[in-house]
Design a protein that fits this description.
The protein is α+β, with helices and mostly antiparallel strands and 306 residues long. The protein is built from 6 helices and 11 strands. The strands form 3 sheets. It has a 5-stranded antiparallel beta sheet. A 3-stranded mixed beta sheet has the order 3-4-8. β1 and β2 form a beta hairpin.
Length: 306
């Protein structure tokens, strides 16, 4: 092992230079030998097993970004916020009050980010695009959610909006999938509601049977979730793109629901429903695509712009 020499150097300049070069070589060789023989260094340099790499990837996916989300506003005043990709537990745990059997909890990964409208589509926005207002609560005003719109009506609105803005391919407006809707509603949280489990606080975040006076209300009047989304609980039920069906077992990636069915998914509860129907995990099974009730509206998603 190299040791630091002691005493004053002697001999010619050439001899001293040669000795210093030799000492430097011996020093570096000793350092390499020490590094190779240290156990913790060998552990740190070993190849990481595949299982550990996958576990690390899952952990990264579950860490919801804490940065402020990007947003944009369309030419007709529709505001959208960016929803980042990630992994979450969809459904509800067995001990959640108000839980029903179709909420089997399972891990879902969304690999692509998307934009989601910060509010439900309003009467003013609908009339701007479609030239009419099908709502029952017209006196509520332009800032109230449009209602009495079927799933097919929502598709017509989307088609007209995409034509107006000349959007096609992947960059277009659409309804969110059921998984996208719940992921965005939770915004990284795990409780009954996006603010937690305390039902007494729900009136601060939602219009529902206990505070709505049985009518719709202008959007943005209740508190938003952490990603800036309003009225994900209450006001009007919101159409999703998926057909209703039982959840698949195990972990899934980018789920889209069954290929066909009788009902389209409705989420979020309404001004008429109780607190249990407004939970993040609640799934309505009464979404026949032709239904157009005063408790049903929608909000739009948009595929991430390139």
């Amino acid at each position: 092992m190299w040791q630091k020499p002691s005493g004053k150097e002697t001999g010619s300049i050439e001899d001293r230079a040669e000795r210093r070069d030799k000492v430097e070589v011996e020093k570096k060789a000793a350092e390499v030998k020490i590094k190779e023989s240290t156990p913790w260094v060998r552990v740190a340099q070993r190849a990481v097993p595949y299982e550990e790499k996958k576990a690390a990837e899952v952990k990264i996916n579950e860490d919801i970004p804490k940065v402020e989300p990007k947003a944009f506003t369309t030419s007709i005043g529709m505001e959208f916020v960016y929803i980042p990709p990630g992994t979450f537990m969809m459904g509800s745990p067995p001990n959640e009050p108000g839980r029903v059997d179709n909420e089997k909890q399972h891990r879902v990964t969304l690999t692509k980010g998307f934009y989601l409208q910060t509010t439900e589509v309003t009467q003013g926005l609908w009339e701007n695009v479609m030239g009419n207002d099908p709502s029952y609560f017209k006196e509520c005003g332009d800032d109230c959610p449009v209602e009495q719109v079927s799933w097919h009506d929502a598709q017509d609105f989307i088609s007209e909006l995409n034509k107006r803005e000349r959007l096609e391919g992947t960059d277009r407006y659409r309804l969110p999938t059921e998984a996208e809707w719940e992921y965005a509603c939770r915004a990284g949280t795990t409780g009954k509601y996006y603010f937690g489990n305390d039902e007494t606080m729900l009136r601060e975040y939602a219009w529902y049977a206990k505070n709505s006076v049985y009518e719709t209300h202008p959007v943005r009047q209740r508190k938003p979730n952490k990603w800036g989304l309003y009225d994900m609980h209450g006001n009007v039920w919101e159409w999703c793109q998926d057909w209703y069906g039982d959840y698949r077992s195990g972990s899934v990636t980018n789920p889209r629901g069954p290929f066909t069915g009788e009902h389209r998914v409705l989420r979020g509860g309404s001004w008429y429903g109780n607190q249990e129907l407004a939970r993040c995990a609640y799934r309505s099974i009464f979404g026949t695509p032709t239904n157009c009730y005063t408790i049903i509206g929608f909000r739009l998603a948009r595929t991430k712009r390139r």
